[in-house]
Structures are given as C-alpha cells and as structure tokens.
Amino acid sequence: MSEPFSVPVTVRGYETDVQGHLNQSVYLNYAEHARWSLLKAAGITQAGLIGSGVGPVALETTIRYQRELLAGDEVEVTCAFEWGEGKTFRIRQAIRKKDGTVAAEITAVGGLMDLKERRLVANASEVLKGLATDPGLF
Fold first, then answer.
1. Which pLDDT tens digit goes with each residue over 26-64?
2. Which of 37, 44, 110, 138 has the fewest CB atoms in 10 Å of its CB?
3. Nearest-angstrom CA–CA distance, 6 and 27
4. Of 117, 13, 11, which is closest to residue 67 (Cα–Cα)?
5. Phi and psi of 37, rounded to 5°?
6. Distance CA 62, CA 19 (A)
7. Is 22 helix (H, G, I), strand (E, B) or coil?
C-alpha cells in the first residue's frame, strides 16, 4: 500500500483545553479510533477477535506534538502497521491538518494476547491477516 489507511476527524470544542488546544489525551483517542477503523475496514470486529480468543494490547505509546489543533480543525488520522519478527508490532500514525501540516506523530508498540493463556501470541501478523476479509490493509 502506498498511502497509509486514514480516517477524517473534526476537532470538537469539548475536546479542547483551557488554551483552546486539543487536549493531550484526545490525541490517543483519535489514534485508537483510526486503529479500530482500520480493523473494521479489514473485516475484523471486536466480537470476531474475542471469538477467536485474542485481543489487542498496547505496550507502549509515544506522542510527538508538532502543531496545535483547535476546535473546528479538520484532520486525517493515518494508521500503518509494521510487522517484525517477534511477538510485538509497531503502529505508526500521524494526525495531519487539511493543508498537510503534521500536528502529531504517534508510535505505538502492541501485540495480540491469547485471552486464555494471558500471553502474547507469537504470530500476531498471521492471526490478524487470517481474521481479515481484506488483509491487504495490513
């Protein structure tokens, strides 16, 4: 895929802080929304994950704030999975204004937990792609 998956979001007034900037915790909500939107577009639901005995887990998240976002700003939130050899994977995300300015970059490390064993599965990429109706999104 040349362009990462993305979803549009409009900053709502109640998401801003006293200075009128998007509250820092809301960036995480936007990132999570894009992740679940990608899973849904790939044909994976929360019920489907639970039914298959796995669930996503966040192990680390880093946010690099670059430009302010204000109420009414329209942004695109990207989401791209990067698969490695181990039990974990990276998710790289950007929140971009309409003019292309990057407002924030989010990097997360995650995994898939076996819900019975309470341990990370060794092959998260294979499991997710196996559950997907459109694995090309990964």
1. 999 999 999 999 999 999 999 999 999 999 999 999 999
2. 37
3. 14
4. 11
5. -65, -40
6. 23
7. strand
Q: Count Cβ atoms below 10 Å from residue 9 Cβ, excluding itself.
A: 21
Cα(130)–Cα(97) distance, rounded to whole angstroms?
Answer: 34
Q: What number of residues does the chain have? A: 138
Q: What is residue 84's predicted lDDT score, i.e. its pLDDT?
A: 87
pTM, two decimal places: 0.93
* Cα distances (Å, whole numbers) of residue 12 to 16, 52, 74, 96: 7, 36, 10, 16
Contact 76, 92 (CB under 8 A): no
State the residue for tokens 């790939």: 42
Question: Which residue reads 């459109």 in tokens?
Answer: 134
Q: Which amino acid is at 40?
A: K
**Extended strands (E) in 3-117:** 5-10, 54-65, 74-83, 88-97, 102-114
Tens-place pLDDT, residues 63-119: 999 999 999 999 999 999 999 888 999 999 999 999 999 999 999 999 999 999 999
Give the model's pLDDT for residue 2: 64
- SS3 (DSSP) at 2: coil
Coil vs helix vs strand at 4: coil
